[in-house]
Design goal:
Elements lengths: L2 H21 L4 E2 L5 E2 L4 H7 L4 E7 L2 E8 L3 H10 L1 H7 L4
Antiparallel strand pairs: 1-2, 3-4
């Protein structure tokens, strides 16, 4: 039951990213480092491995949050996926 909606979200996200890459003439580096446009979500998931969320607390209160290890290709993908994804990764508070 869970697999069908998960695959639907996976496919729709991949389609959205491919369309946005095409519209804005952006490329994402593939496994070998060459620029490619028809990316798969599998590759995007691998690309995003190693990102960490750092929560800074002071006196038991959350002071700041940061996403560590963001590179330009991450920012490109985040921007292309839209404001909802940007809100998750580009934390300002």
């Amino acid at each position: 039951m869970v697999m069908m909606p998960a695959l639907m979200v996976y496919g729709l996200t991949e389609r959205k990213l491919r369309l946005r890459l095409d519209e804005e003439a952006h490329n994402v580096p593939n496994q070998v480092g060459k620029e490619t446009q028809p990316v798969t979500m599998r590759w995007i998931f691998l690309l995003f491995e190693g990102l960490n969320l750092l929560n800074l607390h002071q006196n038991g209160k959350l002071v700041n949050r940061r996403v560590l290890n963001l590179r330009p290709e991450h920012l490109t993908v985040i921007h292309l996926l839209g404001p909802a994804v940007e809100n998750c990764y580009l934390l300002t508070s």
